[in-house]
């Protein structure tokens, strides 16, 4: 008699649409609303961005994207407050990332 092994689970994998739907529901439950920043918080973020740009220090960036708050480390390369964007180089893959300043939640020097 041959053991069934993983074959016994195959009937449950016949509906991949169900797994996709469940994953979407779990992701929607984990979503959070974008925090609203005060003027003082925005000024502090602006000051920290400019300081990190001029001193070339590493920063912790917390930003809002698709219902989640994400924190990354990197170096600020360019800040355009009139155009509402900035460019940073992430620490892991050393890729340039262009983001809007309105997506930023918090910036701290490393």
Task: For the record, give the distance between the C-alpha atoms at the N and C termini, rounded to a whole number.
Answer: 61 Å
Mean pLDDT across the residues is 84
Hey, roughly how much beta strand do the residues contain?
25-35%
Shape: elongated
Strand segment tally: 5
Low-confidence stretches: none
User: Helix/strand-derived class?
Assistant: alpha+beta
Indicate the radius of gyration in whole angstroms. Answer: 21 Å
How would a crystallographer describe the biggest sheet? Answer: 5 strands, antiparallel
Q: Roughly what percent helix? A: 25-40%
Order of helices and strands: HHEEEEE
Strand order of the largest sheet: 4-3-2-1-5
Please report the number of helical segments: 2
Task: Give an overview in words.
- 28% of the residues lie in helices and 35% in strands.
- It has 110 residues and is an alpha+beta fold.
- A 5-stranded antiparallel β-sheet has the order 4-3-2-1-5, with helices on one face.
- Strand 1 and strand 2 (68-80) form a beta hairpin.
- The model has no long low-confidence stretch (mean pLDDT 84).
Give me some keywords for this one:
110 residues, alpha+beta, 28% helix, 35% strand, elongated
Care to give the gist of this entry?
With 110 residues, the chain is of the alpha+beta class. It is built from 2 helices and 5 strands; from the N terminus they run ααβββββ.
């Amino acid at each position: 008699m041959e053991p069934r092994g993983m074959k016994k689970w195959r009937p449950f994998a016949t509906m991949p649409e169900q797994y996709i739907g469940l994953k979407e529901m779990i992701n929607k439950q984990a979503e959070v609303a974008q925090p609203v920043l005060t003027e003082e918080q925005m000024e502090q973020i602006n000051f920290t961005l400019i300081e990190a740009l001029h001193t070339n220090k590493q920063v912790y960036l917390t930003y809002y994207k698709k219902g989640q708050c994400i924190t990354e480390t990197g170096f600020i390369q360019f800040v355009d407050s009139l155009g509402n964007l900035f460019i940073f180089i992430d620490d892991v893959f050393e890729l340039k990332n262009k983001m809007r300043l309105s997506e930023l939640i918090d910036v701290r020097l490393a």
